[in-house]
């Protein structure tokens, strides 16, 4: 078990390893998620890599569930999980993007973690670095983008795995636990979301989106359509004053955007066929 440590030396002494796990703590300062993870990856020895935040409490057999799904299909490049708060509200089941290319955690704090919508395994665009499992060999060709100051590198990694390696990102419903999001980061200076990170991720997704094939575009379209149906049928109060949410109007705009790109791709393909 590799742990990056960015805190005080005195606090480091308080870490308890009562079960005598093979735990190695690497001191890295200042804190940066991408640099921390790239350093740990460089010295890791396992065939698989589990990334987990210090504020995640896993349910029993969660790791086995995530690993089993990853091993089932060679086309799966990375698996994300189901995270909830202490009130059993869903905090993360994957990352979606709106029509402005902004990333958001779909259905965050809008449904319970065991809602039927998230009780199956399915393909997602990206997931949070708070809980993910992948193969070590993925990092033979990729790494976390260290240009991000606070957040976004985990999502970009998922886009890279899909677009550059041709591997799928999956959500696993039994790969789960409690996560009080950003409970550690909130206490660290200069760790609030910033404009440069948002802009970098939006640009990365814009490039990713424009290069999707019709099959992938239809997957995005069908997922947003299911999301919209859930919101309407269950009367989920999805608008919380932010555009990068599951607000039904925003989802409709995104559906239109995807539909237009599908039409343009078909038109382009027809022209090439005729030529």
Describe the fold and architecture.
This protein is of the alpha+beta class and 275 residues long. The protein contains 7 helices and 11 strands. Strands 3, 4, 5, 6, 9, 10 and 11 form a 7-stranded mixed β-sheet that branches. The chain starts with a strand and ends with a helix.
Report the average pLDDT across residues: 92
Task: Tell me the radius of gyration.
Answer: 19 Å
* Contiguous runs where pLDDT drops below 50 for at least 5 residues: none
Count of helix runs: 7
Order of helices and strands: EHEHEEHEEEEEEHEHHH
The proportion of strand residues reads 15-25%
* Class of secondary structure makeup: alpha+beta
Query: What is the makeup of the main sheet?
Result: 7 strands, mixed
Record the SSE blueprint.
Layout: E1 2-5, H1 9-12, E2 24-27, H2 33-43, E3 48-52, E4 56-58, H3 62-72, E5 76-84, E6 90-92, E7 95-97, E8 103-105, E9 122-124, E10 131-135, H4 153-165, E11 168-179, H5 195-210, H6 214-233, H7 248-274
Parallel strand pairs: 1-2, 5-11
Antiparallel strand pairs: 3-10, 4-11, 5-6, 5-10, 7-8, 9-11
Helix pairs in contact: 4-5, 6-7
């Amino acid at each position: 078990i590799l742990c990056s440590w960015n805190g005080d030396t005195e606090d480091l002494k308080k870490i308890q390893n009562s079960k005598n796990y093979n735990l190695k703590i690497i001191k890295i300062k200042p804190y940066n998620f991408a640099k921390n993870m790239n350093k740990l990856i460089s010295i890791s020895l396992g065939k698989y890599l589990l990334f987990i935040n210090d504020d995640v409490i896993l349910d029993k057999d969660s790791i086995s569930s995530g690993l089993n799904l990853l091993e089932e299909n060679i086309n799966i490049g990375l698996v994300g999980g189901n995270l909830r708060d202490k009130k059993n509200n869903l905090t993360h089941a994957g990352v979606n993007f709106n029509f402005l290319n902004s990333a958001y955690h779909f259905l965050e704090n809008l449904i319970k973690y065991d809602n039927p919508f998230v009780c199956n395994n399915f393909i997602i665009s990206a997931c949070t670095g708070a809980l993910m499992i992948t193969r070590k060999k993925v990092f033979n060709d990729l790494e976390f983008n260290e240009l991000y100051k606070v957040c976004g590198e985990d999502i970009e990694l998922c886009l890279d795995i899909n677009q550059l390696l041709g591997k799928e990102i999956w959500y696993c419903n039994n790969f789960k636990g409690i996560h009080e999001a950003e409970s550690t980061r909130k206490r660290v200076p200069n760790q609030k979301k910033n404009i440069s990170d948002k802009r970098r991720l939006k640009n990365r997704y814009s490039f990713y989106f424009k290069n999707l094939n019709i099959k992938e575009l239809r997957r995005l379209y069908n997922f947003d359509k299911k999301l919209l149906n859930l919101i309407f049928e269950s009367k989920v109060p999805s608008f919380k004053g932010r555009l990068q949410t599951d607000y039904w109007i925003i989802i409709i705009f995104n559906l239109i955007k995807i539909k237009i790109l599908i039409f343009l791709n078909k038109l382009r393909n027809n022209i090439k066929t005729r030529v």
